[in-house]
Design a protein that fits this description.
Metal Binding Protein, Guanine Nucleotide Exchange Factor, Chain A; seven-stranded antiparallel beta sheet; about 260 residues; mainly beta; eight-stranded antiparallel beta sheet; single chain
């Protein structure tokens, strides 16, 4: 990662950078905030969140709460309920007016999950803001990939697509025609990724044993991830994955 610049401020684990996308947030179908000068704030190491300039937030929709949010790095924060479109989001907004991080004092943080919809420019974004330091590469490969559970082969192919994403382990996306789909059962679980889109989840049934949500598939991924459309991927944290005959070590992640 590049060294800190004038636009890259840190205190503890918090990093703040300017962003030049138009960002909008809605609640109950009503616009709550609209800005072309958001700030990206890394409160946790995994991904950033958006903070809006106060002038770009419809503050008449905010109602101050009695509670206070405390952060060792950001200071004492005032909580607000957001009321819009007939909906209310308690603690949906937060402002650190006396923050030791001066660049946060004139900004308002909207809680991602409290809002109904988020847009970067005119594209809806799910899960969290896109991290400008995350890259996704999807490469065709001729490496032989085999997936097993309890010694039972679930898939084997010499034409996988390997997805390399900054941070997570390599993911092996396999054609459904090379997967024993008769052993897989679609579940009701749906997940979202800001880089790939909406995914279906699948469990594996071996006799009377069901291994819940071991695989996923993006039937209609976002344009930048079209190369994995309709392909199956297994959590290599939870299955045995062999690449060119060599069993891969199961990665340790939050999914494992």
């Amino acid at each position: 990662m590049a060294a800190a610049t004038d636009h890259d401020h840190q205190r503890g684990r918090v990093r703040v950078e300017p962003c030049f996308k138009r960002v909008r947030a809605y609640l109950g179908g009503e616009l709550v905030a609209d800005t072309i000068r958001p700030a990206l704030v890394w409160e946790v190491p995994y991904y950033p969140t958006y903070y809006f300039p106060v002038a770009d937030v419809r503050t008449e929709l905010l109602r101050k709460e009695d509670g206070v949010a405390h952060s060792p790095s950001r200071g004492e924060g005032t909580l607000y309920t957001v009321a819009a479109g007939g909906h209310e989001a308690p603690a949906g907004a937060l402002r650190y007016e006396q923050s030791p991080l001066a660049q946060l004092r004139e900004l308002i943080r909207l809680d991602w999950d409290s809002m109904d919809a988020w847009f970067e420019e005119d594209e809806e974004v799910f899960t969290h803001p896109r991290d400008p330091y995350t890259r996704v590469d999807i490469l065709p490969s001729s490496r032989l990939v085999r997936v097993e559970v309890e010694g039972v082969a679930l898939a084997e192919t010499s034409s996988p697509r390997l997805l390399f994403e900054t941070g997570p382990p390599v993911r092996y996306y396999l054609p459904k025609t090379h997967v024993r789909m008769e052993l897989l059962e679609r579940t009701d679980v749906v997940t979202h990724c800001p880089y790939k889109g909406q995914a279906e989840s699948w469990s594996v049934r071996l006799g009377d044993t069901v291994h819940e949500n071991l695989a996923w598939c993006y039937p209609a991924p976002l344009p930048e991830s079209q190369k994995i459309a309709g392909l199956m991927c297994f959590y290599n944290e939870k299955v045995d994955t062999f690449v060119d005959g060599v069993r891969q070590e199961r990665p340790a992640t939050r999914a494992g």
